[in-house]
Design brief:
Chains A, B, C, D, E, F: Keywords: Hydrolase. Chains A, B, C, D, E, F: InterPro entries: HD/PDEase_dom (IPR003607), HD_domain (IPR006674), HDIG_dom (IPR006675), YhaM_exoribonuc/phosphodiest (IPR050798). Six copies of one chain form a homohexamer. The first copy, chain A, has about 325 residues and is an alpha+beta fold. In chain A, about 40% of the residues lie in helices and about 20% in strands. The first copy, chain A, is built from ten helices and seven strands. In chain A, helix 2 (about 125-135) packs parallel to helix 5 (about 185-195) and helix 4 (about 160-180) crosses helix 10 (about 265-290).
Chain lengths: ~325, ~325, ~325, ~325, ~325, ~325
């Protein structure tokens, strides 16, 4: 396996990559060619197939794993691959995990961390609701661990949903210590479950795109329904408490225009909203600043509505 | 029964009213008195208890039905009742329906009208989902018929929810005829169910106020959960279709800032949004113009962000 | 006549098209060429003149009807015409109607439909005002029938203004039946006239672009002035009624930020606003969904602020 | 005539005032009394009729001129009049001008000033359009001179419309000198006419309230129609120039949400918008600061969205 | 000293209170009386002086400390004091601290806590800038300890500025641990200094109101100037670092419409914004929920744009 | 020196230009080439280096002054330079002023004009504060004269800051005459100083880009600090007056969302805001209309949110 971030101008390689994008074009002379976007877990690479009708170029589609043979060249200070041969790879020839951006942390130890918080939930109803998914549902657990938290923006990598959730819960742990009005049990339960709807809103890697339900309902409504499914199985779950837990999911985006149909009406809902929003923004900045070595200005960023740069100290 | 809209200045009456409001005050001389808001289905009346500690005034609370004895006087061109005696009435002494603002139409024939539309839903899954509540659930049916559609604003009377729902469905019937892109089955099902969450969001009359679930979740999320409850009981309900039905509920307020967590993404969701919004606004105007005999300007109205008046023709 | 939607890759044709756009460019080798946008009523086609200075290419300009000789090729899955010869066609060689996108309905029968509503206006002043344009002004009638309702977006084809207007009036017919507070005469008159200013705001086909008055005043102010011109000719037209009719034109966009200098203050103005807005949005969706055979997601749509798709049923 | 701003606590007076407001109330003891708002050109005064049913109190209504007899007292540091007798005054007993807030400047010399600018309009079409109203229409001239520019806010006094208009024209004179892209003739004509619609939007003093046309159409649309009336009488008025003049009226509020259906598209329209807005705001401040002797903070002002105070120098 | 929260209906007291408000009024019978707002550190109490011109009532003004003699009565379920005698107290007769709402925590230990964070600032320039105020400026330190963080809303009590600042710094300590992109030195220095401008924006207790500079410049601009004053005294302070520190002050409100002239452009500025906003909101909720014993709904809260209630667990 | 606006198609030139931009590209055949943006004070010119690796092309970077040898050709109706040889020019070979867009007015006489206003400031404190920079600080004066007022948009040329400032002061002179509530001394001082922060916010020509301080603090905060620096040197400067002067700087953008942390609270601050905004917009229009000879529509302009055209008269 030759990872994309190790390639160098001038070398000729033969390697399997995920074909994340494919777009046909034509030169001024009327000669057709194909633009590819190749991906592995270390990044992406533009590919050019200058002779797409040649015998060496077999059939393939977007999202196929393809073996490419060609030369690494440099164009406008970026590397690209001029591809002479393509063949669709078979399952078994490659390890899918090599082709997905993945959390740098250990999913297992993050999951253990999350379970530690689950066990701190003293209220038995709330703890059972959380355990319904995070302890008892093997299929959910394995999906949750491998999921991203976004199509793009922050935490858009395998394990990102787990990493974000754990980070939000830790944030809530701090807040429970700092603000006595917060109920630890409700806040932990809500924080752990706040984005479980994303396991349905986004398809799994390598696709990682909005599902039909994601488009039509969104992870907030989906998440509420999932919490209801759990609550339904727990005898005598207090009605008011179930509504409070669901309210925290409902209101965690904080503003109607951000997709929460209700504004936070409980202290825990407000705290969860702050923790979620802060972690998302800090992680986004972290991803933006990654690999930037200077404190030069990086240009206007639409999400932050500001030019950005790393600090000088 | 002496209805409030039949009272005349100068007469002395003894009659049972609903005590919708009670507020203690004190004259400048330090004499305490009580301000009451009395209600029956024809309107409301201010009541004054100038001697709340006298023997004739028994214990009573807000939302009690109370028998009042006193004189009808006129103050600032409005009638009020100077109350000498109060006694709490017992169940059986009064007919609750006499005390609630109520639709002027027949709930039974409106319900029949709605069932007519239910039977026109050709898609068997959608029709079963609607029948789950509107045909098979007697408790729901009786609650739905008697419910209001709002705490205040439009359709804030018993039967209002039914009246609004039927009106929206008829609107959709027109649109199905006018715009061939609309699927009749989905639109009818969505229109009939769009506000079922209000049976939980608002308590029944005479209270007619937001419930805990109403505050925390709102009728959109509640309505989606109710649709899910129905769908769960219907074998082989197509997943995509269930999501489409739920999406229409989710998006029927049309804008995120109006409490819909998703904007309409399907033609039926958009049509339902227009029908709901238009009926609500036209009914609100109808209630505003009711009993206005001239086309004088009525003053600035915050909801319509305009001064309003009836037309001269 | 070879309509654009019947062309096939590989054939060589000689046919007259409307030259809707012309833009000169240059290859990397410094060779000039021209990009054309050819149009007939079935669609548009990219044209390339690779040798614009050859003898076969006569003088021509944008908005000319030109006879093109060349080969139909395929580029990026779209057809284009590689043009060898061009000559400007003379009036008489072509039928202009063949070159404009046109309503699929019959203008004559739509116009008859509209007249049917005109005759239902009982108020003699209002009916005369409408007849001033729609019955007595032949030049206006022929212009109105052939006009589009927009430069782009919805109803942007010949006959579109008539089609939209009739659709809005029908919508109002439904509302008059549903909401007794509405005055049929005023609402019909206002609906029929609501967009008459567009006959001045937009130039006729094939140009179909904003006029100077369209840019400076807009169709709302123009429409009010046109109504005033009609009213001025009708003896004893009640002043208040004239203002009410003009108000409905003024307020039909519903919001100041959409270009209405006044919010609806009359029930008919509000109803017209809803009918206009709903028809515009439903027609836009109809045009978007046209020729889409699947219920795949179509991508984010800025006007609807949502991803869109056709329904599965 | 005893002007309100000359009254002193303790004196007993008999004088005619305009009854600008009348509201019945009742003491805690059930005794009815009337609150009046009395007005003359120097200000307003609260009046109390403690015994409205006594023989000395004749019939009268809001907007009547009434002779009051009573004692000037002080309440909460404000003077008020305890009224013993009231009688409706007859035309002839009073000079209406004594009862209206009026510009402190000379209407005649302001009008002369305005005519000076009219004569500077070199373009004969534009000058004739302005003269149609400001030179040839005696009824308009006398109405314009006596009108206010607003129901409340700035320039809400007789002559205020003239004062504001002249001030805006002077502002435009400065701008014509400073910015060569501005056409003096168009800008002067537009500035002089920009608020002529207010003579119809607001009724004359003493009422000074929105008319039916004012509510339904607003002074911008009315003003455009008035300009059209003038243009129609002038042979060969260039079409484009007429539209430009009307555009300046249409766009002079600068923003759609402020009631202009078009944003300024010409330099003169933009300049007029700035002149109008600046003069309105500076005059509002002038009225707020009037009679304030200190530079203490005056409290939050909603129009300026700020606390305000006079400057220390 | 009889603290307000210990008074009981029926008792007669003689005690010194701060006269926080004084407003003259008049009974319907024309008898003048005074409404007072009395304050000590435990709360506020309405006072009534029914006979303000009696000999027992000496001269006094708002913000005076006054000895009141009178009877505690109950009105509308609230206690009030019917005052028979008033005399202005002299300095020395009372302890000012008894009359101000005050943090429940120890200012000294909070200050010690803050110093602990100061000492953790490794960067010598940043630490010196903070020490300029928090270690070396005795007058500042004593003012800072006694200041409130707001006129009303959250932390509006003596010591509130210190309490809020320490809480924000602790929040930042958590974030430094959670997000490695944050520079501890810059974030601590910025957090400690972020609201120092409030010592100038608001006057000291008991007045605690906006100063002239507070109105004209606001605590953000004032704070930047104070940081500049400190930086100017420190030799070789890196220019870029000084700007970064000032930027964190400038941007700490996060949005232009909240009064920050720049959006956060550095990670530390963003983190400070989140810490400040979260602490302010959580403390506001804490103050709202204080003394509420049930989880009943508390009514719509404008700041949170939601109805609010305590959680059921 | 061959100025760009004198070049003609077909000629071959050798001349020094400022290399304002440089971007490498590649033809479809894989041949690299460079796109240059050449600038002198009369405009800009595209340059193409088709053979960047040839011996005639020496090393150079953006913002270098380079001698180019090549042929002037025409592409798409615009001239461009096909460059054969490039060599970096040495200081002394060129006059930098020849390469910057520069005010068409005389900086010296504009500066004299500004000094005239300085001398009219009667208040000795305010005049000294202004003189601190505009009379006594030679370095500042020379920088201020040569600075632009913007990176792009209006007055984005050398001398633009002086030209804009003088124009704003003249505007204020008019307003002082028109509105007696304005204090001339404060308004002149504030107007002269309102944009002095731009000398720090933007780097000098030829770079003319945001500095680090410009990004982090902005010219409003920088300007306030500069005023403070001046005030600090003037004995007995009245505190209130200093705050008023600084407030005018702080509030001169008029709205929080435009970067003013405070809305105008003084008449002079409001007047300065209007003068600044009006001059900026009128100058922007002037630059847009420059060299436009017709009154054709120029297309939608985002800043003015409107299509724009010159007037027909």
């Amino acid at each position: 396996m030759r990872y994309i971030n190790t390639l160098q101008e001038g070398e000729t390689i033969r390697n399997i990559y995920l074909c994340k994008g494919k777009r046909s074009a034509e030169t001024r002379n009327g000669k057709p060619y194909d633009n590819l976007l190749l991906q592995d877990k270390t990044g992406t690479l533009d590919g050019k197939v200058w002779d797409p009708n040649s015998g060496g170029i077999a059939d393939y589609d977007e999202m196929d794993f393809i073996e490419c043979y060609g030369e690494v060249t440099s164009y406008n200070n970026n590397l690209q691959l001029n591809i002479k041969q393509i063949r669709k790879a078979q399952a078994g020839e490659y390890v899918p995990a090599d082709y997905m951006p993945t959390t740098e942390k250990s999913p297992e130890s993050m999951y253990e961390g999350l379970l530690g918080y689950v066990s701190q939930i003293g209220n038995t109803y709330l703890r059972q609701a959380v355990e319904y998914y995070f302890v008892n549902d093997e299929e959910f657990i394995s999906r949750f661990k491998a999921h991203s938290a976004a199509k793009s923006v922050h935490h858009g990598f395998a394990g990102g949903l787990l990493e974000h959730t754990l980070s939000v819960v830790k944030f809530c742990e701090y807040m429970v210590g700092a603000y006595p009005i917060l109920n630890k049990d409700l806040l932990y339960a809500a924080a752990i479950c706040h984005d479980i709807g994303k396991t349905v809103e986004l398809s799994a890697f390598p696709e990682n795109d909005y599902t039909d339900d994601g488009q039509l309902l969104g992870h907030i409504v989906i998440g509420v329904e999932m919490v209801s499914d759990a609550v339904r199985t727990i005898p005598d779950f207090p009605v008011k408490l179930a509504s409070e837990l669901k309210h925290c999911i409902v209101a965690h985006h904080g503003e109607l225009e951000y997709g929460s149909p209700k504004k936070p009406a409980l202290a825990e809902a407000l705290a969860l909203n702050f923790a979620d929003c802060t972690d998302a923004k800090m992680q986004t900045l972290t991803e933006i600043f990654k690999d930037k070595n200077s404190n030069d200005w990086l240009g206007y960023n639409r999400l932050f509505e500001s030019n950005l740069r790393k600090t000088s100290v």
